[in-house]
Design brief:
Largest sheet: 4 strands, mixed
Radius of gyration: 17 Å
Strand order of the largest sheet: 3-2-1-4
Oligomer: single chain
């Protein structure tokens, strides 16, 4: 990529992140949608041993954009910050939505990461991003979560009286 194209690309990304406000995130994910996501996570976790956390971020800081921090890097940072890795079976899964970059990233701990293929994670992300491109945040997020729960239920189903100690991560989506 030429220097001019890189500069234009960086300027466009900077503008998207400047315009990405918390209010914009709340418009895309209103209270009813957040409650539906929370319910989906709670119901889905009854079928498998993984722990799902959804974090939605309107935009990155300008410093992060200037440093060319990717959505993937940010997802890993949040995975650590919110201790999604800290589950009994190493089965935490972060679904990270970066609205300004139009990206969805999934970061999975070892227990969940080894039982679901990279292509399967990517398909869940594609369902969300395709829906978001149409403005369908509510339905596409719930559809992707249903896919994710099906994958995890097949790979790591709950066994009767699961001894893992219950819900280890909050089901409530976090909007940053």
């Amino acid at each position: 990529m030429s220097k001019e194209k890189k500069t234009a690309s960086m300027a466009g990304r900077m503008l998207r992140h400047l315009a990405g406000t918390h209010a914009a995130a709340r418009r895309a994910f209103p209270s009813a949608t957040l409650k539906a996501i929370q319910a989906s996570i709670g119901e889905g976790e009854q079928r498998h041993r993984a722990q799902i956390r959804v974090i939605i971020e309107a935009s990155l800081s300008l410093g992060a954009v200037w440093r060319r921090e990717s959505s993937r890097q940010r997802a890993h940072e949040l995975f650590a910050r919110y201790r999604i890795w800290d589950t009994e079976e190493n089965c935490g899964v972060l679904v990270y939505v970066n609205l300004a970059d139009h990206k969805v990233e999934i970061v999975a701990d070892r227990g969940a990461g080894r039982v679901v293929t990279r292509q399967q994670w990517q398909e869940v992300c594609r369902v969300m991003t395709a829906g978001y491109a149409r403005g369908s945040y509510h339905d596409s997020t719930l559809q992707a979560l249903a896919m994710l729960h099906d994958l995890l239920a097949a790979a790591m189903p709950r066994q009767g009286d699961d001894a893992r100690g219950g819900n280890e991560l909050s089901d409530k989506p976090l909007v940053l």
